Amino acid sequence: MNDHYQFDAAGALLSTELPFPRRQGKVRDVYDLGDRLLIVSSDRISAFDYILPTGIPDKGRLLTAMSRFWFEQMDAGRIGQNAGGPNAEQSISHHLISTDVPEEVADQVDPKPLEGRIMVTRKASVVPFECVVRGYLEGSGWKEYQSTGEVCGVALPAGLKQCDQLSEPIFTPATKAEEGHDENVSFEVMCESLGEEQSSQLRRMSLAIYQDALKIAAERGLLIADTKFEFGIVDDQLILIDEVLTPDSSRFWAADEYEPGHSQRSFDKQFVREYLQASDWDRNSPPPPLPESIARQTADRYREGYERLTGQAFA
């Protein structure tokens, strides 16, 4: 067994331990390379604020490939061209430098397990808010609407059904939590923390990215119900960081299956959530391993979302 990598019985990559300073998130291992970051997308999967002991084979490679697809759309000018306002001269910048394994890493560890699942990125000072955009009423937004008729302080019309499309997308920020759930907040709370100018810029950029991505997804028969973006600051400029528009950060639905009034089939970890909800697990103790069939069906769902979006078979 390679000391730098931990796999589960099905071959899913659960953890990496490379000879560089590391911090771990729920899914990603982030390494400091000095002037850049190396972000490794593992096959870990989380649910109900727990990281499960079973991985989803190739999940990290699929997430990386989807992020790369969207960053390429930005580089091509299809996304975010007008996000800076009426006087903007260029599209949104992002942190991705390369998806190739750097030489200084390949010289010290076996690079093969990293291939297809890494991003080399610029370093940025992270904005401490998730920038959430909702085009459809689902998830925590649906729950809040049922209780208050609002989502993060945004009043919505009465009588909306679960998964209804909103008349226009709404920006609903959330605080970034190190552990547990992020907390939905109003735009006013964001302004109090960051100032109105930066908050307004983040809202404008987030809505522009979402609306442009919505058009690209629609061309491929997909709906993006909602998504969350993260931004950082480099040389006083806001740039898009982290993953972008993947099934871990967004809800993707098939347009030809869309039917409001109930939850939709989505291209993410739906099988995992449904299995755990139906199990005897109390959600207050370490979660049980997933059956092989659940892990396989979840992997298939991620793969289907990628192939629908890109029109390419995932190898």
Automatic annotation (TrEMBL):
HAMAP family: SAICAR_synth. GO terms for molecular function: ATP binding; phosphoribosylaminoimidazolesuccinocarboxamide synthase activity. Belongs to the SAICAR synthetase family. Transmembrane segments: none annotated. Pathway: Purine metabolism; IMP biosynthesis via de novo pathway; 5-amino-1-(5-phospho-D-ribosyl)imidazole-4-carboxamide from 5-amino-1-(5-phospho-D-ribosyl)imidazole-4-carboxylate: step 1/2. PANTHER family: PHOSPHORIBOSYLAMINOIMIDAZOLE-SUCCINOCARBOXAMIDE SYNTHASE. Keywords: ATP-binding, Ligase, Nucleotide-binding, Purine biosynthesis. Residues 24-285 form the SAICAR synthetase/ADE2 N-terminal domain. CDD domains: SAICAR_synt_Sc. One of its GO terms (cellular component) is cytoplasm. PROSITE patterns: SAICAR_SYNTHETASE_1, SAICAR_SYNTHETASE_2. One of its GO terms (biological process) is 'de novo' IMP biosynthetic process. It catalyses: 5-amino-1-(5-phospho-D-ribosyl)imidazole-4-carboxylate + L-aspartate + ATP = (2S)-2-[5-amino-1-(5-phospho-beta-D-ribosyl)imidazole-4-carboxamido]succinate + ADP + phosphate + 2 H(+). This is Phosphoribosylaminoimidazole-succinocarboxamide synthase. It comes from the Bacteria. It comes from Rhodopirellula islandica. Its EC number is 6.3.2.6. InterPro entries: SAICAR_synt/ADE2_N, SAICAR_synth, SAICAR_synthetase_CS. SUPFAM superfamilies: SAICAR synthase-like (SSF56104).
